[in-house]
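This part of the workshop introduces the protein records we will be handling. Each record describes a single protein and holds just a pair of labelled lines. Instead of coordinates, the fold is spelled out as a row of discrete tokens. To make this concrete, we reproduce a full record directly below:
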Amino acid sequence: MSLVFIGEQFRNEVTRPFSLRRLERGRQPIDFGKASLAVEPGVSTNNLLIKLRNSNELKIPAFLGEPVRAFIEACVAHARAADLPVRNRFIYVTLDSRPFKKGGTQRTPGWHAEGLQGAEVPVKQGGCYHFLWTNKLPFKISTQGFDLSGINLSQHHVFDSLARQVYDDMVKPTLAGHLYLLNCYQMYTAVPADQDTDDRLFVRVSFSELAYTSTRMSLNPDIDYPFTPHTTTGAAPAHLQVWDAGDEQVGKAS
């Protein structure tokens, strides 16, 4: 296993309590290079819990198969080699191999970051980090810092607000088949397919201090959950508004 330089900025961002203000600073995606994983038709999971906090034991269901197990174990090994927190994290796995039509995207479209801790997390935990991989239809990653001066977590839809600020010349496309490491301060988006596809695979391995409870998450029959899953929808509250930095500047000028 080749060693990839992570840097103290990334390490600090995932060990210290979440702060939206860290999005004011730009960051580059971390590329671990080429990795391979065959598409297993019909096997899809969404935020499947495979490791509990304060444990080193991986509980990977047999139905995922040995290639997926080896892929997950490689991600964990990369995290340990980079001195990132592993033992005190839940680990969740998302695999998506569902076919879709031209214009469809790997996951929900739109600029976003994984692991936002909003008003529903009053006591902020350490930042999440994630390994992302896809065999085709790479995604785009923003490397810029963002203006957060008028954003309020309890009032604004953070991702839609930040999406208005993304500069095209500060966006990097990923390479298909490469393994990327991102944290909760890295904005990225899926790229629409230019043709129908039935042989794609998207994989995300997430390391988080948070208990995921969405009704859309897959349940692991091999785990006795220490929290109650399927209790939240995962949808953004309807009252949230989109903040526009340009609108605020106009208001100040007038």
About this structure: The first strand starts at residue 30 and ends at 34. Residues 8-253 form one domain. The longest helix spans residues 66-81.
